[in-house]
Amino acid sequence: MVPNKSLDDSITIIATLLCDVQTLHGSVFNTKALRLTSMKLRKRVYAEGMGFLTKTLPRLGKAFDKAISGQHSLNATELGFESQPGSKLPRFLGEFFSRVLQPDGALLEQPCTACVGVIRDVLYLFYKYELPYTDEQEHQVVERFKQTEVDLATTDKRLHFLEDSIQLRSGSRVRDLIQDPRLTNVTRRAKLLLWEVFRSFNPKDIHPRHGPGAVATKQKHSGKYLWTNVSAKITDVYPFDAYFCASLGHVCDRYQSFSTIGDKDLPARVVLVPKDSRGPRLISCEPVDKQWVQQGLGRAIVDLVESHPLTRDNVRFTDQTPNRFAALYGSESKRYATLDLNEASDRVSSVLVRLLFPSHVYTCLEACRSSSTLLPNGQDFPLSKFAPMGSALCFPIMALVVWAILTAATDDTDTRESIYVYGDDVIVPTAYAANAIERLESYGLRVNKDKSCTGGSFRESCGMDAFQGVNVTPVRLRTVWSYSPRPESYSSWIAYANSFYDKKYNRVYDLIHSRLFHLYGPIPSEDMFLTCPSLRYVPEDQRPKTRRFNKSLQKLQWKVWDLKSPAHTEVVDGWSMLLRYFAEATSDIPFPTAERHQKQEHLIKDAPAFSVSRYTSRRASMLVRRWR
Questions:
Q1: pTM of this structure
Q2: Cα–Cα dist 354/86, whole Å
Q3: In whole angstroms, how far apart are CA 594 and each of 375, 417, 578?
Q4: Are 331 and 429 in contact, with CB atoms under 8 Å apart?
Q5: Comparing C-alpha atoms, which of 180, 186, 152, 145 is closest to residue 401?
Q6: How far apart are CA 538 and CA 524, in angstroms?
Q7: Rounded CA gap, 107 and 99, in Å?
Q8: Which pLDDT tens digit goes with each residue over 62-89?
Q9: Using an 8 Å Cβ cutoff, are 69 and 458 in contact?
């Protein structure tokens, strides 16, 4: 239940946004339209609650996106909105809808791009607001996770059949087994592509390390280096003395304690983490021993893929720019289509990975893979998927599987070079889109057709929403406003204010600025060039006043609010500290490609000195006053 004060504040924000819209587009949206729209908005929010802003308006927004991408015509009455007389378009923001869509809900021949941006700015404003979710929403997320495993069982039967058909090279039995020769040929090509990528790759030449997240076995910080269980499944491939110890001296000195370490294959553990008002996100935390190897192997694969001639221009893990640019360009030229995979991390079957990847790589991938996970009710649930979200190998393996299948399914060189994969965001030539969807789904993957854009002039990928070559990405509020000082609220709402400023929504910017100033006091402006959260513009009388001249740095400094990660010191045995030093001291900030080497050096130079006994709490920060 959203408090009335929070509800009123949310209404004020969106009503202020409508005022800015009227100022910028007065010829379309006059003061009378503003008054009527604001009244209707308030009436429905008070009647339906926050759900009108977080669910009803975004539902209209999704239908609008389908209309401008040529998928479906818009029908307002089906979405719970009163329609205009003799039209399927809604009365709500009808002045803008009428300049984009025809009365039957289809796209106009010459739609107004600016109106598209306005509609999406209003409808998606609270789409990702992080409101508390219900037990029913938690239950639905877990049930979807379980249902995916049921679907994978059917997929695995087809993949086993395909695996058998590939191993047979001639004879009548091949004709009997191969129902779809094209699928078999695609699979062979995909295998060859991945073999070429990994031909000189040694999956045992890795530098293991711990990740920043939680683990199934619940160790934290320095406790992760005190091994209590290391699966025999892992040590058969990655020997304990070579991959889990700092040196042979470490093995000798700790031989007695090491002899008591268990070798069970422990399951992963499902946790539900906040996402937004639509429900939680499901993460499967890995056991600490598996995470240790996964991090090393995952980084090695990312390094290889972003530098290999076959993949470096098409598969990326650290730079979304190519996908964003392709979406922007594709919305204008219609040359590129954007595909979004549904539950992508949960639908890459372990059998599919075994089928496509070279055996020497798959052996190592399987060694550190969790074969089951503990559900919130304590059930040990077996996994057919290769790796759910939470595994360090989930993202790179998923991207490589998608790239290999799509690349193998075409003989056209231009098409192969125009496939761009960033996780579950995929760019393909529009002419190839239908075939790409068919091929991906034939391997058990599922394309989210609601978010995929294969027609019209709308494209969406990696946070870029584009229409006819114009960026129409809305500002989506996520962090709920806090009425007491909080670090995450402070930094997030400064970022939101800056985004509104860039869109020339000055009243919303001033509203957020006044709230921030009332709660936190003076906030620096970006033209002060300080390394702390800063607003685009702040009047002189509301800027920080406390300042000094730093003789050591030869610069003027101001005392301002800044974010700081809480740190604490944990003293453990010397061998564990040495192991952490080898694992983390020189690789805290991974930038695997040569093009980013200079940026890596700069970040490491500016970072505080590494300390093996110093730890910071993940996803935690403090709001502190300090000189900047």
A1: 0.91
A2: 57
A3: 42, 21, 28
A4: no
A5: 186
A6: 7
A7: 9
A8: 999 999 998 889 999 999 999 999 999 9
A9: yes
